[in-house]
Amino acid sequence: MSQDGFRAGEIDTSRPHPARIYDYLLGGKDHYEVDQQAGDRLAAVAPEVFIGVRANRDFLRRAVQHIVGGGVRQILDIGTGLPTSPNVHEIAHAVAPDVRVAYVDNDPIVKAHADALLGRTGETSVVLADLRDPRAIVDHPDVRRVIDFDEPVAVLLVAIFHFLTDAEQPAQVVATLRDALPAGSFLVLSHATGDFADRTEAQAVYRDATATMNLRSRAEVERLFAGFELVEPGVVQVPYWRPDTEPPTGSDTIGFYGGVARKTD
Ligand SMILES: C[S@@+](CC[C@H](N)C(=O)[O-])C[C@H]1O[C@@H](n2cnc3c(N)ncnc32)[C@H](O)[C@@H]1O
């Protein structure tokens, strides 16, 4: 048993995990055969998924550069995923070396890999916790060790909310996080959608996985930003959020919305 209370045996290699499917789609090495099979099934029914995950990652990079460039020095990255170069702290530190990052994920394998990469440093922490219990995240001692909730925080919820069902009350989850943040904080959120193609078959791939895929429309994704002020250009397909290079061919088909918003009071 680790200090966070999970057992190695909880790493389930018989069912696909979102973090490991995503790792496979990004070309990583930290996945099992079940995850690769799920990724291949996904690509067969939603061929844009490979450029989609890259575009999502690029959106994350641009959003972090934008917010850290604007002076924010703390990042709470919930649903961090398996380490992928460049990681959030690397993106942030390239802009400002004093940024502190708390990584949160509910998958023990993500924590194990992130711990191995980061060790225990003063500027980062890796926490095993679940977005469905946002209060536990905000109150977690290893989050509090690096994040001071009296100073602006960038909360990253990138490609995670679609793993929450409506019954898990996504709006309430964001509200709890928002209420813990001071003015000047940011929310970065991306979310899978079926607005650009029928993605029923892609959703079905996640039926056997450890989390379901809950696609949402643009209006539904915009509502998740309630209580924040969206920065330009608002909620758009991820390649079109402040691109710094030409968006890849096929960007119009990418089923990921993204947006960045600021808490003003
Ligand atoms: C698709 S990956 C996204 C990784 C990264 N945020 C990115 O966009 O590149 C989704 C991550 O969210 C995590 N996740 C899914 N549901 C979660 C939950 N309820 N609480 C915490 N983490 C969760 C998964 O384990 C996975 O690592």
Number of helices, counting only DSSP H or I runs of 4 residues or more: 10
Instruction: Tell me, briefly, the overall form.
Output: globular
For the terminal residues, how far apart are their CA atoms?
A: 42 Å
Average predicted local confidence, pLDDT: 93
**What letter string, H or E per element, gives the SSE order?**
HHHEHEHEHHEHEHHEEE
Instruction: Give the structural class.
Output: alpha/beta
Count every beta strand, where a strand is a DSSP E run of 2 or more residues: 8
Q: Radius of gyration, rounded?
A: 17 Å
Uncertain segments = 1-9
Percent in helix: 25-40%
CATH superfamily: Vaccinia Virus protein VP39
CATH architecture: 3-Layer(aba) Sandwich
Pfam family, one: Methyltransf_19
Protein name: Methyltransferase
Fold and architecture overview:
- This protein is an alpha/beta fold.
- It has one domain (about 15-260): Rossmann fold (3-Layer(aba) Sandwich), CATH 3.40.50.150.
- The chain is built from 10 helices and 8 strands.
- Strands 1, 2, 3, 4, 5, 6, 7 and 8 form an 8-stranded mixed β-sheet that branches.
- The chain is globular.
- Residues about 1-10 have low confidence and may be disordered.
List its traits.
single chain, 265 residues, alpha/beta, Rossmann fold, eight-stranded mixed sheet, disordered N terminus, binds S-adenosylmethionine, SAM_dep_MeTrfase_SAV2177_type, Methyltransferase, SAM-dependent_MTases_sf
